[in-house]
């Protein structure tokens, strides 16, 4: 594998930092290549602005159009181009972060906002049908990703009956709306629960689970998201009525089968 490890935690001495180190050591031991984007260490700028696109501040900033032009003409900010080169090199993306307020840290959201521009991560159409190539197809199809998330909550409370909501539902905007949207297949996430109360034994268990998951990434069955362009959605991009039933509301309707529990 060629792995880009995308990491967002402000303290390298944290449980998250220790697991990143263990993960990279595991990749090395199995002969895999890796590159790292440690966003806090890099002091990554998460804010989209006109400077990203060498855009004239006198003109209105239409982000989609400006970013697409800048990508096509090689005028994107150098920090954005550097991250795009890493992702283009990689066949596997690890996205690791602590779950803060049911989502990813702002610095990581800003990485996707700035790096996944039109023309690079999305924005192509099927020449035969004219339909946009997304949700399973697209510029980044063929790559794989896994989310590693630490959470203060107990594992059961991030399951289907837990008060915090099911983790796959919480991660749906990232796993489905960002990664799958651009064509990246997403394997089930790795949840490290009760992170704020972790003991040395808890860390050892988490490290073992991580070591077990990484070598099998190329063969792990991805989350069974529906493809946009294989017949499940009509021309208005709505699920056909027989697929959108009261028994499968919300995000679950967009899977072809129930996803496995995230805490395995």
From TrEMBL:
Family: Belongs to the NAD(P)H dehydrogenase (quinone) family.
Keyword Iron-sulfur: no
Organism: Streptomyces halobius
Lineage: Bacteria, Bacillati, Actinomycetota, Actinomycetes, Kitasatosporales
Transmembrane segments: none
Source organism superkingdom: Bacteria
Domain called Flavodoxin-like fold: residue spans: 1-213
Bias-annotated ranges (Low complexity): 238-251
Region (Disordered): 234-264
Pfam short name (any one): Flavodoxin_2
Signal peptide boundaries: none
InterPro entries named among the record's database cross-references: Flavodoxin_fold (IPR003680), Flavoprotein-like_sf (IPR029039), NAD(P)H_dehydrogenase_qn (IPR051545)
Keywords recorded for this protein, A-Z: Oxidoreductase
Name of the molecule in the record: NAD(P)H-dependent oxidoreductase
